[in-house]
Amino acid sequence: MKLVEYPSGSSAGSTVFVGKNRFGNWVVREQNGVFGGLFASRAQALKYALCENGQNPEAILEVSREIELVFSSQPA
Questions:
Q1: Residues 6 and 65: beta-carbon distance below 8 Å
Q2: Among 7, 23, 31, 41, who pairs with 15 as Cys (CB 3.0-4.6 Å)?
Q3: Strand 60-63 relative to strand 36-39: parallel, antiparallel, unpaired?
Q4: At a CB cut-off of 8 Å and minimum separation 6, what does 29 contact?
Q5: Helix %, strand %, coil % for the chain, to 5?
């Protein structure tokens, strides 16, 4: 996995962001809000991200700033 700043543009396919929230929990969030979750460890978060995105590690970005899991009635 790569440690990068939050990207400003989107790439082909779905990007999955992995990082910590303000409480220190690990967050997984798909760029369009299709899936996401909170996890106790980085390993659990990465395993979930890989499982949900079809085993595509190139599409997983570990972000260096805080991220939050946002629930809404429509995907972001």
A1: yes
A2: 31
A3: unpaired
A4: 16, 17, 36, 67, 69, 70
A5: 20, 30, 55
Sheet containing 2-4: give its strands across: 2-4, 60-63, 16-20, 26-30, 36-39
Q: What are 4-14's pLDDT values in tens digits?
A: 443 434 344 68
pTM of the model: 0.77
Q: How many residues does the chain have?
A: 76
pLDDT in tens, 17-73: 999 999 999 999 999 989 999 999 999 999 999 999 999 999 999 999 999 998 776
- Is residue 40 within 8 A of residue 24, CB to CB? The reply is no
DSSP single-letter state for residue 58 = G
Q: Which residue has the tokens 């429509």?
A: 74
What's the CA gap between 35 and 20, in Å, rounded?
16
- In sequence order, what are the beta bridge partners of 19? 27
